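Take a record:
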Amino acid sequence: IFSFEGFVMGSRMAHTVGAPDGSAGLPLVNWSKKYGDLRISHFLGMHALQLLPLVAFYLIKYVKGVLVFGVLYFLFCVASFIIAWQGKSLFR
């Protein structure tokens, strides 16, 4: 999913939905506090590559638990993308 989110940002040549890029955002990451920001879902999707193996190795020892966690994390990433695509901020 993260590659799709990156493609959407690249094809739009912008990461903010509902306003032009460059407005003030959260400290450190500069994600928009007022409008939809596609970088959030891209960040979540990219770091799933690190988070899922760590959770599987250290926290969840059963395959079924890892699958449930993976599906829930995927749904969270998709929800963050849909909210951003609607031009709404996750932090409002």
About this structure: The chain has three helices and two strands. Strands lie at 16-17, 36-37.
